[in-house]
Specification:
Blueprint lengths: L6 H17 L2 H9 L5 H9 L8 H14 L1 H8 L5 H7 L2 H12 L5 E4 L15 E5 L2 E12 L6 E7 L11 E7 L5 E5 L11 E12 L3 E2 L5 H35 L4 H4 L2 H29 L5 H32 L2 H8 L9 H12 L6
Parallel strand pairs: 1-4
Antiparallel strand pairs: 2-3, 3-7, 4-5, 5-8, 6-7
Helix pairs in contact: 1-4, 3-5, 4-5, 4-8, 8-10, 8-11, 8-12, 10-11, 11-12, 11-13
The structure holds flavin-adenine dinucleotide.
The site of flavin-adenine dinucleotide has 21 residues, from strand 1, strand 3 and helix 13.
Length: 370
């Protein structure tokens, strides 16, 4: 058993780390956080320099980890332009891949994934946005909430209801590619978030938006299965975000503690807290890489992915909080306070920790395997 990354992936990780340390300066990070501004120039730079290469999942995973380690808000922002791409990659037609995905791959377009609605996010089967087929088109009406890249994306993959549910609530859902320039489409940027303030978040409103039938991803009525497959992939990348936030919290804590006096450095409480942080990080990394290894070999283990997502995101919150406790005023007024604010969302998006625990327990009781 070899626990080291393959040479090419390790090299990519080092290249990404160098990029982040050079480009994600504290001033740029603070500016985008305070002004809630998407880092367009950094995103372009990251694409141009091959930092973001989502055609290789291992490269994507280590890039997310290293970028979030240096700054979570900027790290998530530059790696999220293709959020939702796997739905088209796995289930979309060649036409959709060519028309939409190719541009995202080339860094020339940005996309988003719209599932959550004003009524809630965890109950995916309960969504209300509707698409009605009229001739060769679908007409969509409804609203989506808390959508990343909402006011800046060129298009969205959107889960909507295409028929009334029969005996199963998750039946009758479908996914469409919806162009943000469509008539009847509007986005309202949401401001004042606790964290990840450099990312763009918006409410989407669809008022008789016409979508050509060719924009249907896969088969009508199978949207719930496609979206669950997507979440079983995307959760591994949230685990990588958590890993980065946790590791970055420890890095910055150790750097601050180096300058403290010997008496403080020798305190048992301080050393135990550091040991707890490091142990959590190592356990998160093992779990994340193991789940990723199965997933990237097309042998997914959703329960393992959910364990990685829940544990790594909870570890990010744990480490970011410990970091503030250990560094006091320096942490609270410096860059560490951003890690604390940015960490919380990781326990919420792509399935809250409670939802992950439901997935794990259902797999263990075999309910989901069939
Ligand atoms: C900054 C940000 C960006 C986001 N980006 C996107 C995006 O790009 N696309 C998108 O579709 N969504 C996005 N979301 C939405 C996010 O995925 C949801 O917030 C999340 O799914 C939880 O949904 P909710 O907030 O409506 O909470 P709810 O679903 O209302 O849950 C509230 C609480 O109840 C618990 N709960 C719910 N159901 C159960 C259950 N069955 N058993 C036990 N506990 C339960 C939850 O764990 C949670 O603690 C984003 C959210 C934020 C804040």
């Amino acid at each position: 058993m070899d626990f080291d990354l393959p040479e090419d992936i390790a090299q990519h990780r080092d290249k990404v780390r160098e990029f982040a340390l050079k480009e994600f300066t504290p001033e740029i990070a603070r500016e985008h956080d305070m002004e809630e501004k998407y880092p367009d120039a950094l995103k372009k730079l990251a694409f141009d320099q091959g930092i973001v290469d989502f055609t290789n999942p291992w490269k994507t995973l280590v890039a997310i980890e290293e970028l979030c380690r240096v700054d979570p808000g900027l790290g998530i922002s530059v790696t999220v332009p293709y959020f939702g791409a796997e739905t088209i990659m796995l289930f979309g037609s060649d036409l959709l891949k060519e028309k939409y995905l190719a541009k995202v791959n080339a860094g020339k377009a940005m996309m988003g994934l719209a599932v959550t609605e004003p009524g809630g996010g965890s109950d995916v089967a309960g969504i209300k946005t509707e698409a009605k087929k009229v001739d060769e088109k679908y007409i969509i009406n409804g609203a989506k909430m808390f959508i990343t890249n909402g006011s800046i994306a060129d298009f969205f993959v959107m889960l909507v209801r295409t028929s009334r549910p029969d005996n199963k609530r998750h039946h009758g859902l479908s996914i469409f590619v919806v162009d943000s320039k469509s008539k009847g489409f509007s986005a309202n940027k949401l401001k004042g978030k606790l964290g990840v303030r450099a990312t763009d978040t918006a409410e989407l409103v669809l008022n008789n938006v016409e979508v050509p039938a060719e924009n249907l991803i896969g088969e009508e009525g199978k949207g719930f299965y496609y979206i669950m497959t997507f979440f079983n992939i995307s959760r591994i990348f949230v685990a990588a975000q958590g890993l980065g936030v946790a590791q970055g919290s420890l890095d910055r804590t150790l750097a601050i503690l180096k300058n403290r006096n010997e008496a403080y450095q020798g305190l048992e409480e301080v050393n135990f807290a550091i040991a707890d942080m490091a142990t959590r990080i190592e356990a998160s990394r093992m779990l994340t890489y193991k789940a990723a290894s199965y997933l990237f070999q097309f042998k997914p283990k959703p329960e393992l992915t959910s364990m990685a997502k829940a544990f790594a995101s909870e570890s990010a919150v744990f480490c970011a909080e410990k970091a503030l406790e250990l560094t006091g005023l320096e942490g609270l007024t410096g860059d560490l306070e951003r890690y604390f604010r940015d960490a919380k969302i990781l326990e919420i998006w792509e399935g809250t920790s409670e939802v992950e625990k439901l997935v794990i327990s259902r797999f263990l009781t075999k309910e989901e395997k069939s």
